[in-house]
Design a protein that fits this description.
This protein is of the alpha+beta class. The protein has 39 helices and 41 strands. The longest helix is centred in the middle third of the chain and has 21 residues, at 505-525.
Amino acid sequence: MLARLAKLGTLATELTTFKLVTSNKWPHMRTKLLTMPDVTLDKAVDLCRAEEIASARAAELGVAVKQMEVNKIRKAKGDSKASSSRCKFCGDRHEFVKGVCPAFGKRCHRCHGKNHFEKVCKASAKFKSRKSKQVKEIREESDSEVPESDSDSEPSSQSDVEYEIGKVYDNSGSGGSVLAELDLKFAEQWESVLCELDTGANTSLIGHDYLVKLSGDNHPALQSSKLRLQSFGGKPINVLGQVKVPCRRLDRKYRLVLQVVEGDHRPLLSAKASRELGFVKFCRAVSFVEPSAKSPDKLFNIYRIKAQEIIDEHQELFTGYGMLPGVVSLEVDTSIHPSIQPPRRVPIAVREKLKRELESLERDGIIVKETRHTDWVSNLVIVQRGGPESGVRICLDPVPLNKALKRPNLQFVTLDEILPELGKAKVFSSVDARKGFWHVVLDEPSSKLTTFWTPFGRYRWTRLPFGIAPAPEIFQIKLQEVIQGLKGVECIADDLLIFGVGDTLEEALANHNECLEHLLIRLEQHNVKLNRSKLKLCERSVKFYGHVLTDEGLKPDEDKVVAIRDYPTPVNRKEVHRFIGMVNYLSRFIRNLSTNMDNLRRLISEFVTWQWTSVEQAEFDKVKSLVADINTLRYYDVTHPVVIECDASSTGLGVAIFQRDGVIGYASRTLTPTERNYAQIEKELLAILFACVRFDQLIVGNPKATIRTDHKPLIAIFKKPLLSAPRRLQHMLLNLQRYNLSVEFVTGKDNVVADALSRACRPAVESEEYRKQNIYKVLEEVEEVKLGAFLRISDSKTSEIIEQTEKDPSMQLLMNYIQHGWPESADRIPDSAKIYFNYRHELSCQDGLIFRNDRILVPHVLRRSLVESCHASHNGVEATLKLARANLFWPGMNTQIKDVVKQCGTCAKFAPSQANPPMRSHEIPIYPFQLASMDVFFAEYRGTKRSFLITVDHYSDFFELDILKDLTPESVIIACKENFARHGIPQRVVCDNGTNFANQKMMRFASEWDFELVTSAPYHQQANGKAEAAVKVVKHLLKKANESGSDYWYALLHWRNIPNKIGSSPVARLFSRSTRCGVPAAVDRLRPVVVENVPTAIEANRKRAKFYYDKKAKQLPELQVGSPVHVQLRPDTSKLWAPGTVSSCLNDRSFVVNVDGVDYRRSLVHLKPRKVPETQPVRSAPAAPIRNEIIESSPAAVVPNGISSTCVPVDCQERNTNNNTNESTPTLFTQAAVTPVTPSTENSNRSRPVTPAHTGRPKRNIRIPAKLNDYQLNF
């Protein structure tokens, strides 16, 4: 043992042989061994054992044998005779045999002579080297490593008292160090630290960098040190100082002195410190006694060492990943459709850790990259390991896939089948496989079922992943195949149980070690790897399916009733009522249970004075003893389903498990201070997890395990994907994936047993034995889930939220409700916290923060600033909401964020243009030239750029083209007179808002010739779509005529005779006949024939166009006069928005907007509502001159009721020049509609507003533009 701890490596055998030859207690044996030419370690051990047995036999026969046993060594004082026996070469006492003196062959550091040490050198002092500063021996101060309390005396090294060594990890066989766990105290907190044991060191030390990490102080306070250190090779070690660190071990406290050196070395304990702390025990003598004389404890210790040696011979079983032979196919229910889950975002802070973990798993062959299509794609669940600096563990979100996977039918061994063999077992060991599911290799089709998303591409598992439903059964089937035929080995769930059988304890121990060795050999053959941290060797008892197997036989598991046995005495009526309710519920399972509770029932009544006497106590103890009697529990049957009732209160958890109308066991547990801050839904799920882990052997592989809970929101949690649950619930649900659970909701009155146990639970158990159990480790992992670690919020902002949470009274009230429970009704809650009542099951608090699931509940003071922080990049409403929803929460957060974004001037200014509103067309004409559209454009004609006026008839699509000599209103009016003289005066003329049409002369012309002039809003060409479509046709004809050298007017003649989508040509609908166009035609085509049903054909064409157009359209919000809006002033050159106010409404799609004191006319598509703060009153727009973009004040400029000033674009094709249909069934022009609108008489006072022709629309004030004040206007 000492040679192993000293890490002698390959010299261990040689040095051990030397020590045994020169230091055994028989002089004649030393002489004999020294004279032997080929002494080996085995031969020396055999000779010493023979000499020891001979001495023992001689003592039995009465032969006096001189004993050379050394009990104590001490320095003799004033003994001149003793000093004469010192060696003159080394200064110590030893046998004067050649080669025994340690100075033999060594060189003196004073005179440099051979075969003696410096301390006995007789040379003059002048030979002493002054440069040598090496220290040969360092003796520690007397108070460096002693217990703090004088009452805790140091155990003597010669005492027979034995202490448990604890967690010591021996890696010396693989070239590593021997490590041990020790609790050290830094910054008033105890922390378990792995320390290195070195029995060859004279002092304990620690690296400075390692000390900084443990203490959290970059400049730890160091005491001065007078020690000088050197390494094994003689190299000096720089000592920076020393620290005295409190430590504890085996319920005793010490003060450990550590020399601080440079580097990042973990704490190194010297031989003295290792001995004082109980990590190393020095053996003064070795003696062999007959095993029969050993006590059971001694036998367990001896054979446990031998079992450990067997484990050490198979070290390769504890490294790497195993792989069982063969592949496994997952069975899929074909009736369930495959599911490809949408990918979820991974926090940026976790991506680097995730990438490293994926690369590691891919390198080990656990996962592979998938580039082809797969029918099933699951999401990824990331679990943080330990602290923030630790890595991550990746799992599947298996909920959708588990619905389709079939679980294999696994036949478990029953207690009756194995009891005859286990009845004689007296020693037990248990171990489980390392990454057990990863031992099973999946075939390619099954592997593709486990494909999952990552930010770095898709991957799939080549091994059986954790979390899928059939994984426990598949792995156990494979494991049973491996151990088949082995004696003394059984499967318990997914663990391996090794037991020894024999008539005596020694025979059982020997049989156990033999079975253990056979198992390890079998596991090596099948490449199964084991988990060393969960290895338990030579235990006296083990739990097996609700019973306890011990070296004394089969016993019931007392832990199943300890929750009832420790039920506290009631102190008020409510607690008595709860206890009686539990007993009444259990009375159907236990006979005569509720017959002797008269005194307890009497205390429930409000009319009886509360008085708890010895009579009530005796009755309470009697009833409790009946419930806690282990014989009243039902025998567990592995072939029948189990029902587990769970409940959680504000202080504890309660569980009761039933089978076939009988009770199997009870369990309860007090919540830790951290767990009391959980949300209620987290506590309820924690109760389910506690029940499953506590009764793990009864649930794993059971055909059906039903969980009953009185918390209804849990039902939905189990049905949803894993990623939709909060972080802490995710961790719990992952641990529950190994069980085949069915969750049911029951009312509180049907869950009385678990409810009573949760409110009268056992005190928290923190013993060392409890910490070793798996249930403690699982719940500790859940407790270590830090919700703040998954938030994308800076530490400074988190600290600010914590500070404001402490100052906010409503937040403190809310935190008090979370920790101590909510009232049953919202009426009993103050108004400041009443708004949170509907979220109460989702609220939890941790580290001074309140969370709703994974999101921080923000105090009222910080809400506006955090909204602005989320909107710092001005990415719009949806992006801001997504960012805020990922981390933050408060009631009304969505509404507040929308209001803030809508009020943001920057976002409004650079917002994209709006979608077009649904199509709305002009009324359908019933005769030619009833409705006409006009426009002015430029085009190249015969090599010269000319200006043209186009006039389009909405009935026939026939258009007239006039060449203008200039763009003055007079030229346009002359062309109009010629066209109107030829075809008649239209009832209404639609044109854009250009100066050619929006002028006083054009208005006077319309009034004199008796037609209505309607102009469209600026920058909205769709309102005059009929003319725009005709312009495109003309330009195409002109370009083609110029390219081909043909006559444009001849081409126009051809175009007028071509039928379009209406079903007839423009000239046919206008003239009721075709015209000669150079194409041979029958005489009948040239005779006048009226084309029938033209309005109906126009209506059908418009409906068809509207159907396709409205697919991309959007209904825009309505605007009122005085509404604040954002307006695009120049949408043709700039898409920026400016704030303004609606001054007047021309119709529901054309408005006059005031921007900075100037009025602009714009279409609805260029306007959108503007959100103004409620504290800022809406400013009414002052009277301002209208820009020249608005038509002059004339009644003709007012759009009459029923006719829209906006129009959608017409088909650009030559044959689709008709206008678009209305949203409703179009109303044909009647005879009354032919009557034109008569302009109102003008008043000499120009400031007087003009009365609109149709008073049904909102009125507006029309003023003469300021630029015309210096001119005399003739109307």
